[in-house]
Design a protein that fits this description.
about 325 residues; alpha/beta; Rossmann fold; 6-stranded parallel β-sheet; 3-stranded parallel β-sheet; globular
Amino acid sequence: MLTTPLIAHLARSGSVDVVTTPAAAPLLAGNPAIRRVISYDKRGADRGISGLRRVGAAVRPASTDATAYLAQGSWRSAALALIAGYGRRVGFDTSTGRWLYTRRVPHRREQHHSERLLRLAVGSNAVVDPNSLTPALFPSTEDVGAVSALLAAHGASSDRLIALAPGSIWATKRWPRFPELAAALAPYGRIVVIGGLADRELASAIRSTVPDAIDATGQLSLLSSAELIRRAALLVTNDSLPQHLASAMGTPTVTIYGPTIPGFGFGPLAPRSTTTGHEFLDCRPCHPHGPAECPLGHHRCMRDLASADVLSRALSALAA
């Protein structure tokens, strides 16, 4: 998602093709800046050298003067660009595939990752408009209709929505007090829970405290989820994908950080957004993504973060 500002910038000068995973490809559907989305199933149908060559042939440029921007940074992506015949290969100087690049751009930790990616094209010293860093998504008519049908089925078509996203792929990034927060926020709007099938149990815990909360987990596509978030007055989420969906759709966001911190460059970009986390733990941050288990066994970064703090930030965003 955070490559979309880079893609929009590149599209002003020519056609842009994007190679991505099958899971991420649906997020780019309908993007007018993209000519083609090529799915690279590196762990499935396209695994191994034969798969690398097959995808390389599919993305071969018309000229060796073409440029590949290696946003992902792995050696596999760099090898794919080389095999495909891109004479110019640009990526970060910290990437594992950097030895195959023809130009290396400094990776600056103090920048938001959206800006870091854009600077692959504009360079380290260019003046960047902060408004150009917001990601963009393009839900289809079908996506919009799916959300309208879901809300209508729950009698919530005209309700003020407050979206909660309690899940995360990384277990240590899941704040455990979402049910308590949902109960406190229920007087201010209809609670709707965002997430995938794996988040059903978390949604059930929220509905145990707020019975009329809408459980949308596992019922919507990624772009439909983005459309649902667009209709919400607020999103409260862990440091996970929904905050980036909200950034693209302009929905104010409260992001809860545990083992990670906003300083890694992946914070919310929507207006009136804020972040919170346990500020007084020497062990934070402990991991760039969030470990499967707390390395010290206490998980205080999430367990000790009071719901009152998150509630205060949420109410401030709703009142703004």
